[in-house]
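I have been asked to look over a protein record a colleague put together. The record follows directly below this note.
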Amino acid sequence: MKEADSGINCRLLAFLTTTELYPEGIQAYWKPFVDCLVNPKTEECQFYEKKSWEPDVYDLNPVSSWEPDLPDVYKVGGDVSQPKVRSRVEPVYTLVARQARIQGTVLLQAIVTRDGGIQILRVIRPLGYGLEESAAEALSKWTFHPATLMGQPVNVTLFIEVNFNLKH
């Protein structure tokens, strides 16, 4: 394994043994993504594959009826207000990504909690080069004014895009 000099514990992983389900030390938000690499035909994996291509302006992938079941977690809309960012931390552009001139958008699914924290659930659209970890690490430090339902704070699920663009 090779450590990337990015300020983040970022490892290039090449192989798993037959008894390993996930690479050692993998962050929990990567596990659903890896599961979908192994078994991409599930409704869940097809839902997130479609989500990774949004906006799908050509509507090439039909809409799945599957929705994630997240108990005690609401979707923004109707009577559920959107959370508002109180403070944010910008992600670090990893050295290896900068050297490779990688640009694009990482898409993550997260829960903004009723106390204004955030929990990263899964990687949906990766870029590689440690940028997903950088995005998740930065987002984990954000604080929010929570979403509300009838004036009471509630947990909500969001899809969060983190853009990485090299400035010329």
Observations:
- Residues 1-14 have pLDDT under 50 and may be disordered.
- Helices lie at 31-38, 43-52, 95-99, 131-139.
- The two ends are 32 Å apart (CA to CA).
